[in-house]
From TrEMBL:
The lineage of its organism: Eukaryota, Metazoa, Ecdysozoa, Nematoda, Chromadorea. GO terms for biological process: regulation of transcription by RNA polymerase II; termination of RNA polymerase II transcription. One of its GO terms (molecular function) is transcription coregulator activity. It holds the Pfam family Med18. It comes from Caenorhabditis japonica. Component of the Mediator complex, a coactivator involved in the regulated transcription of nearly all RNA polymerase II-dependent genes. Mediator functions as a bridge to convey information from gene-specific regulatory proteins to the basal RNA polymerase II transcription machinery. Mediator is recruited to promoters by direct interactions with regulatory proteins and serves as a scaffold for the assembly of a functional preinitiation complex with RNA polymerase II and the general transcription factors. One of its GO terms (cellular component) is mediator complex. This is Mediator of RNA polymerase II transcription subunit 18. InterPro entries: Mediator_Med18 (IPR019095).
Length: 232
């Protein structure tokens, strides 16, 4: 019974009821990028702005889609994420994450979207994903650091891909870009008012200027409409 975890249920129940958030949450997000050679400068800025310490990560992420039967142009994004061990062995714990379509709120200074995360244990995750009807769009590896400032999460990571699908040793991994991705976010309960948190996130993001410009990227518009010609 090695899969069982010994937990003092009575002792942990009050803490879980206070600190846990609803299963379905809202997420405020901003994205940016920075040349990899300037990442040390960004880390020094974050060290002065954020809580003490940071956590390094090396993860494998796969993005799947579940297309609607009514319209093949509309799809639901599902992401699977697993963490590599330091010796590049793979754990069988996966984060299964649903990302909803952002809210069409032009006045909000950040992206607002629904997000559902759960933890799955499986030694054959691809079979499980196929059974759900999911099709993989793309995959990549991320390696970087996680910082926090209260309930704000800041991640900067370099993106790499495997030149031989299914092989993730150092000889098979190739860098995608000479830039690093920067993401800052706040998670909120589903029914919470998001505008105060979005403004807090925007204020924090402005403190990263001019090293990194954090933007509200309209990435979802490509799924629903074609580009409109610029006005003269």
């Amino acid at each position: 019974m090695e899969n069982l975890i010994d937990i003092d249920e009575e002792a942990t129940r009050p803490q879980l009821s206070i600190n846990s958030t609803p299963y379905q949450t809202q997420e405020c997000v901003l994205y940016g990028s920075i040349f990899s050679k300037h990442v040390p400068d960004l880390e020094r800025r974050l060290a002065g702005l954020c809580d003490p310490g940071c956590e390094e990560f090396f993860e494998h992420e796969m993005s799947f889609c579940l297309r609607s039967l009514a319209s093949s142009d509309v799809k639901t994004d599902i992401k699977l994420r697993r963490r590599f061990r330091t010796d590049h062995q793979i754990q069988n714990y996966w984060q299964l994450r649903y990302i909803g379509v952002p809210e069409p709120d032009q006045k909000c200074p950040t992206i607002i979207r629904k997000e559902i995360s759960s933890l799955v244990h499986s030694s054959d995750m691809m079979t499980y994903a196929k059974a759900l009807g999911l099709r993989m769009d793309y995959e990549y590896m991320t390696q970087g650091k996680l910082w926090t400032k209260g309930n704000i999460k800041i991640l900067h990571s370099s993106l790499t891909k495997s030149i031989r699908p299914g092989n993730y040793d150092s000889s098979s991994i190739k860098s995608i870009s000479d830039s690093s991705l920067v993401e800052i976010s706040i998670s909120l309960p589903e029914s919470a008012e998001y505008m105060p948190a979005a403004k807090t996130l925007r204020d924090f993001a402005d403190q990263l200027m001019p090293l990194c410009s954090m933007e509200k990227v309209d990435y979802w518009k490509k799924m629903f409409s074609t580009a409109t010609p610029a006005r003269k």
